[in-house]
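Regression test attached.
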Amino acid sequence: MVVTKDTQVEEVVKIKGVISYFIQRGVSPISCSGAFPQSLGNLLSIKKVADPDAFIEGLNEYIASQSQELKDRTDD
Amino acid sequence: MRKFIDENYKLFIDGKWVDGGGKKFETHCPANGELLATCAEADKGDVDRAVSAAWRAFETWKDVSPQERQRILLKIADLMEANAEKLAMVETFDNGKPIRETRAIDVPLSIDHFRYFAGVVRAEEGQATMIDKDTMSLILREPIGVVGQIIPWNFPLTMAAWKLAPALAAGDCVVIKPSSATPLSILELAKLLAEVLPPGVVNVVTGRGSTTGNYILEHPDFRKLAFTGSTEVGYSIAEAAAKKIIPSTLELGGKSANIFFPDCPWEKAIEGLQIGILFNQGQVCCAGSRVFVHEAIYDKFLKEAIAAFERVKVGMPWEESTQMGSQINEAQVEKILSYVEVGKKEGAKVATGGYRLTEHGLDKGCFIAPTIFTDVDNKMRIAQEEIFGPVVCFIKFKDEAEVIKMANDSEYGLGGAVWTKDINRAIRVARAVETGRMWVNTYNSLPAHAPFGGYKKSGIGRETHKMMLEHYTQKKNIFISLSEGKVGLY
């Protein structure tokens, strides 16, 4: 899965382990309302993230590394 | 469990249970992962039908007399009371909160909300003013129309009661959406409402925020939106309301200060600390998540707090001895534990807790140990951001001025408390903290008859009080000339 500004936050948070990436960077994608019900771009805008492109690029790298780690563990 | 919860739930629209046009979704018990029920998801057409049904119902509901509305609200309360055990069990299974809380707090408070608004609706009066000897001004309150209400997962039944009772008392009709994480208690409530309300007065549409929730926000025919949830989503609600030029009431996030002075009532204060952050597993918008303790008692208070936190029985929520149940889901566990790591990196120390509980049969649920951070600076992220779990930050203070400054150094202003036997100090501090609710020598008490709502980014509007009727009505002015003669301008 490649995440973009238009990806729904609800879809992103289904990826195991991804919430810690958000929290480490000061953005909570979930609350008592559930997952933020709009796009990732909108959430980053509301949270005034200075460089949303870098956030999303880092998020995709994080997801890829998690997938690889999971694959390695499975291969072991 | 099955004797309390159906296997399948539909949408409640126009007094009928109907299939939704969207995908079905499942709701699971967060304490053991068990499938509880499959629910319908409302698509755009379903929301359209719900709003249309509400407007049709409004044509007659708006003219129902206050006496009759009172009778209906009291009947709802009676039906809830007759089904109190079922509602408590459903809420406990769906949400993970301890049965001792749903039995003693969530359900009784919800019932009392309907009774409270049944009372105040009979005391409402308009105004008549003589502008001069020939001119009379009448001010009447009229229902606002059809209202969209969006409910969070942390207190599903209670938050629904907070919103439904004033709306119905005011003469409005409602389309309400529970959280997709905890739809069941509101759907069970709808079964009771169906026995007393005309079709269409209350419609329940279930589904995700990104689908059903957004259809509500986008729908052009609501006259008001009401929301409890996060500040981030609150922006979207306020924006959607602004685009339609309709009012919204918002009860949003918090990072409330729980302040302990040396003369605090000691035993009660230690319990107040726990009620502040462990009630509902800390998943409370007004949780006392920043604990300010005077330096004269800090060490002793912390020592006793740690012991008290470690004595708390975390367990299956339906067991009567359980004091703290399950967090709502895996995502929330991940969020809380991520904040624990953030706190450690910032230099705070975990005095107790800070980990997931999996032993003694808790491995399939979402259980977190009650957690205390020490060595916290109020500027740290763990002291500024809403963690929404049983995690409290201990901060030492020297005097009143310092603690007031730190308490106010927050973007939020929802709850808070001061613990002292000095009434002058209690009032001084309560007045100085910028928040909508300050408790004195108590915490998380939220009965009807005392207004609750936020300052700053914690929201707009005051619930749990008759002043909420203001938000669900609009004022009509009838301006009457009593003079028989012309004005004389033409």
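Expected vs. actual: identical. The longest helix of chain A spans residues 52-75.
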